């Protein structure tokens, strides 16, 4: 059982944003990294899977065709965390995480409060529990948004650049936690991400997009090659897979210079 994408197309207005995303799959229990340059269509693909942008083609989660499902029915199975986070709601961190939680009939409310407290403790957000969302820093807001996503316990978690505002400590902490959580809950997690070294360290599987099309889908060592990075990102890069250290993808130079 997994997530499969075949012949997915998406147009917004008259523009074909995703002319052909095909041959992608993601397995439960591990992180899948969605990579590609600016404008490649990563956010649009995640929105199309979530049902926020209308798409045609196949997106199959386990045995269900997501494209045929209503937004509400998709929301039962997946959670999409957007790149841009709203922070206008006059809610505290605790209230925001509590409201994000899936309501369970016949469950005592004390269980919900305990679950929220545990989630805040796990993400080291307890000291911020009573602070308003609008008064958080960018990185704090992003960690609360991750708590809101995970507490829903979705089968499929789609995260659009979830670590973009985090400092190095929290990037490592959050991705390590998400990797373990995916395995523990047998959850499918797809993460759009720009930091290739971080992605190579935590994701077991990669989707590569360019100009709204699939370039590759596979294991990190198959996908993250010098040739692929030259083709997709127009960079020269050093790619190293040391035995006892995390992988290192070092960008060396852009193949085109601004200003000629
Ligand atoms: N609502 C829209 N209307 C028209 N074009 C759009 C719209 N949303 C996105 N696009 C275009 O679709 C293309 C893909 O955008 P998308 O945001 O999916 O890329 P991305 O890979 O997530 O990029 P980034 O790495 O910069 O976040 C871009 O060329 C963008 O300008």
UniProtKB/TrEMBL annotation:
Annotated GO molecular function terms are: ATP binding
Give the signal peptide range.
none
Recorded hits in CDD domains, A to Z, give: ABC_Iron-Siderophores_B12_Hemin
What does the UniProt keyword field contain? ATP-binding, Nucleotide-binding
PROSITE patterns according to UniProt: ABC_TRANSPORTER_1 (PS00211), ABC_TRANSPORTER_2 (PS50893)
The family database entries (Gene3D superfamilies) matched by this protein are listed as:
P-loop containing nucleotide triphosphate hydrolases (3.40.50.300)
Q: What are the ABC transporter domain coordinates in residue numbering?
A: 3-236
- Establish whether keyword Nucleotide-binding is in the entry: yes
> What's a Pfam family this protein contains?
ABC_tran
Q: Which InterPro entries has this protein been placed in?
A: AAA+_ATPase, ABC_transporter-like_ATP-bd, ABC_transporter-like_CS, P-loop_NTPase
Identify this protein by name.
ABC transporter ATP-binding protein
